[in-house]
Structures are given as C-alpha cells and as structure tokens.
Amino acid sequence: MTGIDKVVAIRVASLADLARLASTMASRLIVMPVYRFRMGERVYYFVQASFKDYYKLYGLPIVYYYSQPASDDVPDDRAKYILIKADMTGEEVEVSPQARTGYVVVPIVNLSSKPPHLPDELD
Q: How many CB atoms sit inside 10 A of residue 118's CB?
C-alpha cells in the first residue's frame, strides 16, 4: 500500500449549510457527526459522504467542509454539538456545549489533527 488516497473536498458557504447537510440523515435515525480540527489559525468542520452510482465511481469519497478563523470559534472543550432549528420564523444554527429540546442535534467529534485522507490544501 502506498498510502491513503485523498478524498474530494468541497467547501460549503457556511456552518449552517454543513449543519443542514449533516441533519438530513436525522429523519432516517442515522447520526452523521461533524468532525472538527484546528490547523494553523483556522478551525475546520467536515462531514464525510460518498457519491453512489456516480458513473463508474461507486463510493467516491467526498468531504464537505467549512472553515473559519480559530479565534471566532467556541473552545474545543465546550464545542460538543451543532444545533439546528427551522420553523416559520426562520432558521437557527449554533455551536453549543449541550443539546437542547426542539433542535436537531448534530454531535461534534473533535480530532487532534487533520486526518491524513483530507487534502493538504484546504482554504
């Protein structure tokens, strides 16, 4: 084995976009965690998915991610969940130290470093 192949990385426009993507599986009672790590002066959130039946590339691994300056983020030891709530008044997305009733709760898994299968160059 020559190493781990890199995945296709797609940057989403906001943390809310990533939360909506992760929460889509909640209706099927499948938890899709959001993984989080720091690299340099940025913090990265990502979810892993696969394209199914994409021509002959069955199972093509894709990572959807969002990054922001590390100084704007909740500290590692407190960032445990992304909460998302959508109703007639609009959408609310936040990073929280605890779950809250009435929200779709997406767990955050904090990683100690960038996983080797992610591309080295992430913006």
A: 20
Q: Please, are residues 66 and 45 in contact by the beta-carbon 8 Å criterion?
A: yes
CB 95 within 8 A of CB 70: no
What DSSP designation does 75 have?
A: P
Tokens 């913090």, residue located: 43
Question: pLDDT tens digit string along 36-87?
Answer: 999 888 999 999 876 665 555 566 778 899 998 887 555 566 789 999 998 8
Tens of pLDDT, residue by residue over 6-32, are: 788 999 999 999 999 888 876 666 778
Write down how long the chain is: 123
What does the domain layout of the chain look like in residue ranges? 8-110
d(CA 114, CA 40): 11
CA 91 from chain centre, in angstroms, equals: 18
